[in-house]
Batch of 4 targets.
Target 1
Amino acid sequence: MQPIRVWLTPPGPNAWKVVFLLEELGVPYEVKSIRFADVKKRPMIDVNPNGRVPAIEDPNTNLTLWESGAIITYLIEQYDTRHTLTYTSLADRHHLNQWLHFQMSGQGPYYGTSGWFIHLHPETLPSAIDRYTKQVTRVLGVLEGWLAEDGREWLVGDKMTYADLAWVPWNDRVDTVLVGVPEPEKLDAFPNVKAWHKRMTSRASWRRCMELRARLMDEQGLMPNGMPKGTMPEGVTSYSDYVAKVDAGEDPVFQQ
């Protein structure tokens, strides 16, 4: 089997859903790590015209695919032939798909928007911050209630599946999308979610993902928050300034 190429930018959560899945399945892959400033440029837009990561190129099927949910569905269908991370019954298959769609439509957008208004928006908008942090806690509450019922350990059935896996990268950023919640306490209000999250992040496959992320971040000269290391150039005083310049087609140079 030839390795699947995964296009990603190291800081963002979405691509790590794909890498996490490939690690769990033991499918060979290679990473094409690009800088945030290059996602709207060639060759990235030749792979994904939307200029977003992740995207994959699978030489085994000659398929190029983007959108993390679609990629997960494809990888499971094509490579989880032993049903390690899925089920075969009608109800279970659709319940897995249900939780994947909830992650794509609920968790990812709300967590990301909350993080934007807390950290990146040029002005502080308390009403927006309040709106989206409440949505984050609402989504966590849905997870908490589901896992608490009958002492569930996993989202569907009696084993870890791709549905559980898809939620982890964004869930691992909760401390950055909830106001005033320090890192060690980020899931204390949701004990069942906290226990489930620990089961997931204790897996060797997740540790390998985070080790790879740290190496790729270092290769690009990035700090854990995604900002380049070094002295900020003129006109850049915050991450929102940096994002605005990148969105405007500039590439701020940080002095090392």
Target 2
Amino acid sequence: MTAPVLPAADDVAVRLSALVRVPTVSSRVPEEVAGARFDELVALLETLYPHVHRVLERELVSRAPDVADGRSVQFRWRGTGGEEGERHPLVLMAHYDVVAVPGLPVPVDDVEAHAPGWSHPPFAGVVRDGAVWGRGTLDDKGALVVALEAVEALVAAGWTPPRDVYLSFGHNEETAGDGARTAVARLAERGIRPWLVLDEGGAVVQGAMPGVAAPTAVVGIAEKGILDLELSTRDDGGHASTPAANGATVRLARAITRIDDHPFPPRLSEPVRALLATLADHADGPMRRVFANAGRLAPVVARAFTRLGVEPNALVRTTVAVTQLEGSPGANVLAQTARANANVRILPGETVATVVARLTRVIDDPTITLRVVSGEDPSPVSPAAGPQWELVRTALAASYPDAVLTPYVQLGASDSRRYCAISDHVYRFSPFDLTTAQRASIHGVDEHVTVAALGRGVAFTAALLEAVPAPTAAAAPRP
């Protein structure tokens, strides 16, 4: 083989821009999903990455052959490791669906349309000021692109991995996650247990932890559970000119206020303890001692985190966000039913059942019904040590040599949680350096990734692939 030549970051940016211009917006409302756009993006990948499609085997994954909301795409790159390499592959994940942009219709017809607050049209894929701007640049088409760019370069150079590699790209991570669930089921049927799974998640950040000046590469070794909980109560209704005391909306508002007034107690979970232990050697001043003794000072440290900002607070407690409210259908009509949706992110060590039980106690109102709309417990915790973890460290050294590798608990849910059923080493890391503003732009306004970060992301992924160890067990030769 020849030495792989990684693409110029500017060229990577152009290809990411092309994908952003295909508005693959997810929705739980079937009429809002433009299936043709999803098919268009899958076809565009074949144009942009011909070597990948020439050598890797592609499989379109969905629950049924006639689904109209796109397909998850899974590529298999056959390695040289025989049966053992087939059974224990490396899996690189991403998803190509994106969330809607407030102010734009769904589905999106005009990719040049502007949206309130955005510096550039969200689906125009503008490359300007050293960045690619648009919905999906960070969540998660950017990660998809750097994975494909690295594989394209390695395939073009004639390189073959020592164990199988899968590229698993979901089409509905932002909604149901059925694509990833089906992909995992198919691998399980084939007796495959991935050696390592890497999906979106943490990033290279600076200033995220007090007293730590060095850039830190935070890699999720677990993710919080997720629960959508409906709170509802009923009443007789009637005309708004003759309201009764303590009506449905009042009781619902009181329940919400009680939840807000009684947050879950802060606690240092295993991943956060590992985070602080890792950063102790890199902290300055008194924080070095605090981090080093976090186990002994756990209650104090956990309480301190709740006062450091929304991200540190979310690291140490189960959070509840009331995201939707519904009452009367008319301005002069008393509500017969009042509803709210509480989106809960569950800290490792707690479960859907324990969360519902606590909220029931906090609300303390038998007229309020709590219904689990959907819920999943926190993921298992993957080890922050061993050959898989060291492989991530090796790739980081080639792309962000000054960054400190550290574990943490991922706050948001990802498709990777589906893979915990078949792999003990599931990590969550997007190989980009991100500012606080960029992290806030995910699902928000002015989402963008820098061109330089795209280049470093390709370098990270290529280094990861090139350093993948061969299977240790004796592998049967291929026929």
Target 3
Amino acid sequence: MSATDVRVNVQDQYVIIDNGILQLTLSNPDGIVMGVRYNGLDNLMEVLNKEDNRGYWDLVWNAPGASGAFDVIKGTNFRIILQSEELVEVSFTRTWAPSLQGKLVPLKIDKRFVVLRGSSGLYTYATFEHLQGWPDFDIDEIRVTFKLRKDKFHYMAISDTMQRVMPMPDDRLPGRCQQLAYPEAVLLTNPINPELKGEVDDKYQYSNENQDIRVHGWISLDPPIGFWQITPSDEFRTGGLMKQNQTSHVGPMTLAVSTITFLI
């Protein structure tokens, strides 16, 4: 049976790319991943979250001397880069202007999403351009974040030796845990899965060295689905191969992180 051609349907608020295996729904013109349909499941993303809090690019930046600002990157313009039977590539861009000084990072950002014929995955990459004369700034981190359905994805795998059944996000709420030395670390006192009682949950304990971050993600047993973050290379990372970065953690969440510190 031959693979289905890739199709794209552009609507006022949505861009839907479908190859017969996977259906990707993006907001128009924001470029936020609102839905991923696969293997009979209407949406792998957390449907309880708002549509703009499911899958997105984000960054942390600041003007020199100012405090850091968290920015979920939302495009203002959409266009189709390439459309054929074999693939569809779309672009969501946002360009800084002087009226946005202090509000948005001074960059021209182009987020791209690609779906191939016969593929069960999606590709995403971005370019960041700082034009001459634009203000200087510090940028600390750029990430791609996916928040999956908590009613489906319970088993997390970071490596051959780091994989397990995970706590639920509800286990980190008051009444089910005890706050420890810093906000990310809690003692599970009354988890939904009683076998996890007495354990400490801390997203940083699942960090890994850049050189070892290749494939990580989550598994659903019903239906049987794996959601995997695949890192094609280390060219976007800084800090060296032994620099540690986050991977996946309770949410269920999976990340691709470039932790950087420089002044532009």
Target 4
Amino acid sequence: MKIALIAHDEKKPQMARLAAAYREILRGHELFATGHTGKVVADATGLTVKCFNSGPLGGDQEIGALIAQNKMDLVIFLRDPLTAQPHEPDVNALIRLADVYDTPLATNFGTAEVLLRGLDAGFVDFRQLVNGDESKHEHYE
């Protein structure tokens, strides 16, 4: 599963804590991130993270392109609704794309935890539900 990680500047420490707490779950997946967020996560966890450009240079748009190509399975975008700076990525475009392509997107720590725990428990197979064999998921009907 491909997981994208993005965090506004004030939320990068929280992203590091989230990634460290869920390192064992994240280890089994392909991680992508905007530039600085990816470095923060890699430093906090030792996990491999494919880093795109930083947010101000279009990294969030690179992730958005993967969502639009239906190649991203989950997005965690820890946004700062109170003190976000003008140079930081705007979550609205990613939320729209995630809704269009049925890609789960968490914008806060609590929702991110629920998605990661569901992923770990095997309750959630987003890619299969969106693109795959629906018969494997009869219990969702």
